[in-house]
Fold this protein.
Amino acid sequence: MIKHTPLWWETAPQPKSYTGNPLPTQTDVVVVGGGFTGTSAALQLAKKGANVTLLEAKTIGYEASSRNGGQALSCLHYTLTEIVEQHGKTLAGEMFLAAVEAANTVERIVKEENVECDYTRCGSVEAASKPAHFERFKREQELLKEVANFDVQIIPKSEQRSELGTDAYHGVMVNPRGGSVQPAKFVRGMAEAAVRAGAHIHEGVRVQNIERVQGSMDGIKFKVHTEAGVIEAKDVIVAANAWVGKLIPQFRLKVFPGESYVIATEPLNDELAQTLIPHNRVAYDTRHILAYYRLSPEKRMTWGGELTLRGVSPQRNINALQKGMVKIFPELVNTKLDYFWNGTLALTLDETAHAGQTSDGIWYSMAYVGHGVTLATYLGQQMANEVLGLSSNNPFANLNIPFIPPYRENAWFVNVGKLWYRVLDMLG
Ligand SMILES: Cc1cc2nc3c(=O)[nH]c(=O)nc-3n(C[C@H](O)[C@H](O)[C@H](O)COP(=O)(O)OP(=O)(O)OC[C@H]3O[C@@H](n4cnc5c(N)ncnc54)[C@H](O)[C@@H]3O)c2cc1C
């Protein structure tokens, strides 16, 4: 029987609990949300001596941060070629290098804080789903060298089995700086490190609204209203990702939730695992509706993405994922599926991360489009630096975010968008 629960929850130690302590009435900084963004921000703030209170509506990492593919990527959702077209060479280069630094930041935190999270700097593989996409790799390789002095390796179809045991692709591109983590262990480990550094974490506390106060003494600029009481704070960082619009109204019609689904097989034998992903890298393909996959530490093929739709039965999504997996790796046709789960990402129509400060002075960081393991960790840290007045690097500030159609709880247009992307994938 397939278990409907994230594999990462089952293979992590029992999480620490942060409940039962009364809320403070005042603090320097309130961080709203306990995923990668919030725990990383809290860790940095506490290490630099700030009095920080992290409020999490559920439990640490409960949403995307413990449910993702665990791909710690050293790149962005768009290719550098696309980012140059959108933002010009200078800003595009800064964004790409921030992504590279984001991957370094994950490695640094894991080492400095001794976070046990099966971290490896294994590299990532992008697989060309069409011949034209391999041609794109060649241009991308040149541009990465020119703009960011960054080296990737491209491998033609005839030799791609050295990276992925399949003939279904048209060549691959290897980014040596990517890595992998067990995400539930990583986010919980960052929370524990933040607490060791002096941060206060309160689980099960939902922030209802953030009130800007004028003319207050002691530098207090905000009243943070929660179900459990009000906290006065000098600064607030909203790290609520897909739910940012509930707290910062200007994002209500700009940032929307999208679901992604994942299956994990039974553990593969060593020989098969070695054949399918010889260097144990994390992998994804070049389609709009892409598949992302990797071997878990116990060598389960962990496969996410595909044309999985919100609202259809779990079994239909399981079937779609399994079909996509078997198309690439036919050897897995009879391999048992042990886990299925889903998670909610924050999306914007420009499919770019956004971090900065509102005109009211609230800090935010969100919408990493499938690259949040590294980017959320990095930008959470950068937002903390900004609050503290330390030097920071944030090329994702001040970008316009396009408006989306109105919706209530579920963004109905996500399924429409996925189907449209599927048509584009079929065309070329
Ligand atoms: C299935 C799936 C697969 C993915 N795979 C990858 C991958 O392989 N690599 C990669 O880099 N990225 C991946 N991502 C994306 C990545 O997981 C996210 O970008 C990242 O986790 C975002 O972190 P976050 O802290 O900003 O948000 P979240 O982890 O979503 O955390 C936000 C937190 O805020 C809390 N919150 C919300 N509202 C309130 C409130 N009012 N009061 C208090 N707390 C509140 C929530 O409970 C939640 O815990 C994937 C995402 C999904 C869903």
Q: What stands out?
A: The CA atoms of residues 157 and 170 lie 5 Å apart.
